[in-house]
Specification:
Elements: E1 3-9, H1 22-29, E2 33-39, E3 52-53, E4 63-64, H2 66-76, E5 84-93, H3 96-104, E6 109-112, E7 117-118, H4 120-125, E8 129-132, H5 142-153, E9 186-187, E10 190-191, H6 201-219, H7 221-236
Parallel strand pairs: 1-2, 1-6, 4-7, 5-6, 5-8
Antiparallel strand pairs: 3-4, 9-10
Helix pairs in contact: 3-5, 6-7
The structure holds adenine.
Adenine is lined by residues 87-89, 113, 132-134, 136-138, 141, 144.
Length: 239
Amino acid sequence: APWRATVLTLFPEMFPGPLGVSLAGRALSAGLWSLEARDIRASATDKHRSVDGTPAGGGPGMVLRADVLAASIDAAGIAPERPRLLMSPRGRPLTQAMVRNLADGPGPLIVCGRFEGIDQRVIDARELVEVSIGDYVLSGGEIAALVLIDACVRLLPGVMGKLESGTDESFSDDLLEYPQYTRPQLFEGRTIPDVLTSGDHAKVAAWRRAQAEALTEARRPDLWAERRARQDGEQKGPG
Ligand code: ADE
């Protein structure tokens, strides 16, 4: 069965949204993955279809009800091997390693938070794993879910052709990308670095690596330190 994302949201009309065009959209039309957006409100039980309540203990905003969200999760009929995620700014930061793991599996259930939060009891009772896409606050989890799905879909078999593969896998995983150039040779007084037009493939590769390393050290000391630590470990051997 192809990779599948099941999204629980109060705004199902936000899907597939931008994932319906370009690379992800073509792959969706081709059946390389599928998307199911389910309306949490369909699991409301009272006559007003209420999905939220005021926070216990007081305070601003509204909280998504545990009973309604639990019913929505149960109605989705998710196989136990599929990850159950909750998009939330207090979650574990999304990394390319997590994306690769998710893309290698059957595809997640993704709950999109709204309001001031979600009743903690449903997070606990359904064992939702909270995931954040960064240290800023969105108005809801939907855009975060789109980001996570996009990052997974581009890794699925057959989605990216060899030519579109974007990154040079030989040293892209823990380094920022080296600068790229194309025609014209002269743009507003700026030329393409000579090494790139020299035809010397070994020299080109060495220049790109040096550029990628310099950029990473300057802009992302956190990634640079991790890379240094990993390389030190590899030198000592796996033990
Ligand atoms: N919902 C609101 N902000 C978010 C974030 N930064 N990551 C994931 N989900 C969110």
